[in-house]
Amino acid sequence: MAAATDSKNYNLAQDPSELFDIYPAPPTLEQFNSIISPDWGANFFPSPQATGKVKERSQVHRDGDWHRSIQVWIYQKSEDATNNSTRVLLQRRSPYKDTHPNLLDVSCAGHVNAGDDVAETTMREMEEELGYNGVMNDRYSMEDVKNSRMFTVTSAIEGETERHGKYICREYQDVFILQWKGDRSMETSDFAPMVKEEVAGFELIDGQQLIHKLRIRDEDFVPRSSQYIDALENVFGC
Questions:
Q1: Which tens digits make up the pLDDT trace of 103-147?
Q2: How far apart (Å, rounded) are the C-alpha atoms in residues 77 and 208?
Q3: Ordered alpha helix ranges (H), the chain
Q4: Rounded CA separation 124/110 (Å)
Q5: Which has the closest alpha carbon to 205: 217, 194, 195, 214?
Q6: Alpha-carbon distance 194 to 24, whole Å?
Q7: What pTM does this model have?
């Protein structure tokens, strides 16, 4: 019975048969962990163009195909005008995830399924991972989300989990950064995932501390490239 329950938890955390659009690799190896810029050409900037090929999630992570995901950072600046501090919402990934289990990650993230729109995927993932208790209801509009898109960054990471084995995760990550909308302080208790097997919990971290942890490649955090970290530092005003 325990084994059956464990298997169900892993299946709830992700669907290995969900379909992803496949994208071409970046032009050079040096661009494998970089923010996309105009000099990459029309096939990549402002938005990477899919090849037309579609594959299942399990095959994509096995073969190292380039695919698309969204990442959302939600932050709150201090209400004290003399204090420039920023608090950032993090999620702790579920132990059942097929990549980076148990690590601290962005506020919200998800893959873009084949044929789906990036902004619509972002809205859906915010509801699913953060808003099961209703906290996201009408808090951010589609226009808010579209205006919060900051950049697209490439990420190429290899790893291994006890359950899923080796994986090669190569993504074009569309990064959205939203300032908390509310008349009170943002708290971890505000947020709840629709599927608890996807998100283990939430934490708040000072913006400067977050940047420091990412720069030293703290083992408790999903790793980010130097260009990604620089961009976050600029936005959070650290």
A1: 999 999 999 999 999 999 999 999 999 999 999 999 999 999 999
A2: 12
A3: 2-13, 57-63, 118-130, 142-147, 207-215, 226-236
A4: 9
A5: 214
A6: 33
A7: 0.93
